[in-house]
Amino acid sequence: MASQIHTFPGLPDLSGLIVAGVDEVGRGPLVGAVVTAAVILDPQKPIAGLADSKALTEKKRLHLAMEIREKALCFALGRADPHEIDELNILHATMLAMQRAVAGLAIHPQHVLVDGNRTPRFSCPATAVVKGDARVAAISAASILAKVTRDAEMTALHERYPQYGFDQHKGYPTVAHLAALQAHGPIPEHRRSFAPVRNALAARLPGR
Q1: For 41-73, how does the pLDDT look when each residue is reduced to its tens digit (9 = 90+)?
Q2: Fewer CB within 10 Å, N- or C-terminus of the chain?
């Protein structure tokens, strides 16, 4: 049942182990949740074309996301909502969302590989892999599921608040988003602890 892992310098020997890949999407946006995914791939059902989700077209991501859901041994999503981000800060909220994703897996992994340079505490050993979403298939799969999920949430938010253009910038602090924030003010889903949102709130206080 162990997932196939390509060994490279710095990666421990994971042969024979059940390995989950974990990644996040949404640390930089000003609005919405940070979304994470954990994936345990099936070595008997390889998926061609897995890569960093940012390097793929939307059409390719959607196709691969469907294939991952069909072929993976298991997968789970995690999230931390804006109020948790504001309370914990984005780093700790991201770590919490990763823990939630791994805890949601139907199969308990024996090792977790996390994209980036640090890992939260799991109930099994974990290794951080810099640029892991382009180096480890399971992390690539997690990256794709997380991005497809969060993009869909931004599209749904756009339907409620079309004046912000969330379907285009997905909540990132683009010129268009910052202009909309100044013109219309923050919505409940905005992260109050992020400076552009905090400044937009202050600008709307009486006497300003």
Answers
A1: 999 999 999 999 999 999 999 999 999 999 999
A2: C
Measure CA 26 to chain center: 6
The average confidence (pLDDT) of the chain is 93
**135-169 pLDDT tens trace:** 999 999 999 999 999 999 999 999 999 999 999 99
Instruction: Describe the crossing of helices 137-160 and 58-71 by its angle, rounded to 10 degrees.
Output: 120
Phi, psi (degrees; rounded to nearest 5) at 161: -135, 70
In degrees and rounded to multiples of 5, residue 111 shows phi and psi of -155, 145
Residue ranges of alpha helices (H) inside the chain are 58-71, 82-88, 90-103, 137-160, 166-169, 175-184, 195-203
Q: How far is Cα 110 from Cα 80, in angstroms, rounded to an integer?
A: 24
User: How many whole angstroms separate alpha carbon 50 and alpha carbon 55?
Assistant: 10
- Give this prediction's pTM: 0.93
Q: What are phi and psi of 16, to 5 degrees?
A: 85, -5
Q: Does domain 19-158 have CATH number 3.30.420.10?
A: yes
